[in-house]
């Protein structure tokens, strides 16, 4: 029996040593939140409201869809942002009808919440990014600030999928774009919250690229460009994946883990989905520690659902989540 106990001790020690070795070379497991309630979304943008602590998710849909949660886990559907069409929509996107609104981005700056959104027609570059603002999301009163940037079939870029961020220098930047010649970044005015100069192309990808999220992480010293590559909007047949590159400048070059410039098709995939959650994308990074996105539920015949995870950064200064 002493011999058997000795072998068990040796085996246990070996297992513990192996576990310690694995823990040193692999990142800790990042947590995906257990969400309940109404989680049907596409292209979510997430924020926690100052003062109230309410969690809000804005997403593509009729009138621009809104979810809220008191704890960040159980979600309820609120009233949409738009119940009627702003007059300027028809001027910039004549073929856009109804209240179909795409790809919102919510951003808080100097006491005001800025909600960017897109109007377009599927497969066309005749598009526009619009803006509404409020001092209180819970109050539900939004002010139309008009068109931010527009595009047509003669422009290189497609003016949808806006994302706003503040750089290390205090300046504000907007990433945007979808498919047509890729993703662009432009500086925006801190007074008008609209572009002040040229737009610079920072990423392209054959087969589809859109939904940029631009993030500056002061702990790593890098700007990170998260994008959705592949195709969306086909339920379980969607091929979306989330990819990322990084740069020391908001205007790039953004390179992936292999050093390939995203302007030349680079991008390291960090979420390709699984058998339960297909085609993850439309991501939004909140701060530097939370990532929201949608994925198509295999269990619910491809319904687009909200997923939120803690976002972590490995020893090589790259983001990851599970």
Describe it.
With 322 residues, the chain is mainly beta. The chain has one domain (30-320): Glycosyl hydrolase domain, family 43 (Tachylectin-2, Chain A, 5 Propeller), CATH 2.115.10.20. It has helices at residues 2-25, 89-92; strands at 36-37, 45-48, 55-59, 61-62, 65-69, 74-77, 100-109, 112-119, 127-134, 143-151, 163-166, 172-176, 183-188, 195-203, 209-217, 222-229, 241-247, 268-271, 277-286, 290-297, 303-310, 312-313, 319-320. The strands form six sheets. A five-stranded mixed sheet has the order 1-6-5-3-2, with no helix packed on it.
Which features characterize this protein?
five-stranded mixed sheet; 2 helices; single chain; globular; 322 residues; mainly beta; Tachylectin-2, Chain A; five-stranded antiparallel sheet
Instruction: Determine the fraction of residues in helical runs and give it as a percent range.
Output: under 10%
Main sheet attributes: strand count, strand direction, barrel closure: 5 strands, mixed
How would you spell out the order of helices and strands? HEEEEEEHEEEEEEEEEEEEEEEEE
Termini separation (Å)?
A: 44 Å
Task: Say which CATH homologous superfamily is assigned.
Answer: Glycosyl hydrolase domain, family 43
Supply the CATH class.
Mainly Beta
**What structural category characterises the helix and strand content?**
mainly beta
Number of helices: 2
Q: Please state how the strands of the largest beta sheet are arranged side by side.
A: 1-6-5-3-2
* CATH fold annotation: Tachylectin-2, Chain A
Overall body shape? globular
Rg: 21 Å
CATH architecture verdict: 5 Propeller
- Give the DSSP E fraction (strand runs of 2 or more residues): 35-45%
Model regions low in confidence, pLDDT < 50 over at least 5 residues = 1-29
Tell me the number of structural domains: 1
């Amino acid at each position: 029996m002493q011999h058997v106990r000795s072998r068990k001790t040796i085996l246990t020690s070996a297992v513990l040593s192996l576990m310690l070795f694995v823990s040193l070379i692999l990142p800790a497991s990042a947590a995906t939140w257990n969400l309940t309630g109404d989680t049907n979304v596409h292209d979510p943008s997430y924020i926690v409201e100052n003062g109230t602590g309410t969690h809000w998710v804005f997403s593509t849909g009729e009138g621009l869809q809104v979810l809220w949660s008191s704890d960040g886990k159980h979600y309820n559907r609120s009233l949409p942002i738009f119940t009627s069409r702003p007059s300027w929509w028809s001027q910039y996107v004549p073929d856009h009808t109804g209240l179909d609104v795409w790809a919102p981005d919510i951003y808080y700056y100097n006491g005001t919440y800025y909600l960017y959104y897109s109007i377009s027609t599927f497969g066309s570059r005749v598009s526009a990014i619009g803006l509404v603002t409020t001092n209180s999301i819970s109050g539900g009163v939004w002010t139309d600030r008009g068109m931010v940037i527009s595009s047509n079939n003669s422009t290189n870029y497609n003016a949808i999928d806006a994302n706003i961020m503040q750089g290390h220098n205090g300046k504000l930047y907007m990433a945007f774009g979808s498919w047509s010649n890729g993703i662009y970044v432009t500086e925006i005015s801190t007074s008008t919250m609209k572009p002040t100069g040229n737009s610079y192309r920072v990423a392209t990808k054959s087969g589809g690229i859109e939904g940029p999220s631009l993030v500056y992480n002061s702990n790593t010293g890098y700007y990170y460009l998260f994008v959705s590559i592949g195709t969306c909007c086909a339920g379980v047949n969607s091929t979306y994946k989330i990819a990322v590159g990084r740069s020391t400048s908001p205007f790039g070059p953004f390179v992936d883990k292999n050093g390939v410039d995203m302007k030349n098709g680079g991008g390291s995939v960090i979420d390709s989905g699984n058998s339960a959650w297909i085609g993850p994308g439309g991501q939004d990074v909140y701060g530097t520690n939370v990532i929201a996105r949608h994925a198509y539920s295999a269990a619910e015949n491809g319904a687009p659902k909200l997923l939120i995870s803690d976002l972590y950064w490995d020893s090589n200064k790259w983001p990851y989540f599970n």
